[in-house]
Write a structure and sequence with these properties.
The structure holds two protein chains of two kinds. Chain A has helices at residues 2-6, 23-41, 43-46, 49-62, 78-90, 153-162, and strands at residues 99-102, 108-115, 118-124, 129-136, 139-146. By secondary structure, chain A is of the alpha+beta class. Chain A has a five-stranded antiparallel beta sheet. Chain A is globular. Chain B has a nine-stranded antiparallel beta sheet, covered by helices on one side. The radius of gyration of chain B is 21 Å and the shape is globular. The chains are: A alpha+beta, B alpha+beta. At the A-B interface, helix 2, helix 4 and helix 5 of A face strand 1, strand 3, strand 5, strand 6 and strand 7 of B.
Amino acid sequence: MTLATLDSPQLSYGATPTRGAGPEARFIAKQSEEDRRRLREAHSIGLGAERAFEELFVVARECGKPNWDGYGAQAVQEETCWQAYRFLEALPLGIPVPTVGAEADGHLTLEWYQNPVRVLSVSISSNGMVYYAALIGSSKRSGTEPFLGEVPKDILYIIRRVFSA
Amino acid sequence: MVLQTLKIDLTEQFPRLSHAPIAEAVIEMRAHAEVPWEESGIRGQLVPLLPGYPKIESQSEFEHEMQFGPGQDTMQRHRDLGWRGLRCESADNVHMAQFNRDGFVFSRLRPYDHWEQFHAEAIRLWKIHRDLAAPSGIQRLGLRFINRIELPVDGPPPDDYLRMPSEVLAGMPLSRVGFFHRDVLAVQGYPYIVTIVRTVQPIQVTGNKGFGLLLDIDVFSTEPFDLRDDLLTQRLVEMRWLKNKAFFGSITQQALETFQ
């Protein structure tokens, strides 16, 4: 039963706690962040999460000016990069790492790809809205969610489905 | 082993503690503002509605510690992400309300009074926020109680107060000098998660405090819901029950007697 619970999408919850204002809340937040970072830096647990941050850094640098693709693409705004950064940080430990790319409209994309019919693309905008589209076998799913510090449950569920086969 | 189904029993009574170690109680509604959220407009509307909250500060969003960069040294950055909202503090410094673009947070600091007072003030201010921000729903509702138990430097060990594994390493008589223990618990059959953190806060430089044994109980919803008052009330009542169960299930009999 313990293992079943650990495999649950519920495990992802709590990455961002209810926000306190006092000194105890700040102390706990700092401790928690340090512990999480230590775990993520271990490749065996973080599954190479650092790589995604490095990709984000490269994309931010290469797509930060208009017409970065030579076809009139919009620049990726700094705010969009930070939204993507926070999204990556909020991914539960142990989740497969996405590849990072940019779109012509200035959004950033995170893609989880298993094969041509098992793929999820998440598009992140500067205002914190997250648009996703997935193909899992013959089933298609898409939606829009606000990003408020936690990865939406539907997206976590789809990531697991993409890699479940 | 099969988990028993939990039933939230709202008729259950809990001991009333006259020395409850509550350092902070928080209610947070995460709900995106769906109207323009600009300082001058929001401040102008909010200030006349909050005469009991004379200390009003702008809150900006900051990011720290950017650490990535292939082939580069670790970078530390500090960046202002712009105006996020207002933080309002009561004249007696025990109530703090944050009216932010992404939601509302109400904190009650020491001395905690009682649930009815805390809840009523939180809801009163939430309604103000709701009218200003016009969100279409609540994405996440959180109820968090942080307890701080003072421990003398050479006093009793933490497990005299909190239920926790007494032996970390079998056969190794090592003494525990620090820990950070976090459990994330799903509530079967209900849209809630309970996280419990047990940790030790070092001696505080200011405030004349010794070691603090922290028991942080955070109950939050896992599904968005509509802005109906009855739904919000129902969720909070259920979450309060979970918080109480988590608290009384985490402390020892000795601690209970100390707090009564």
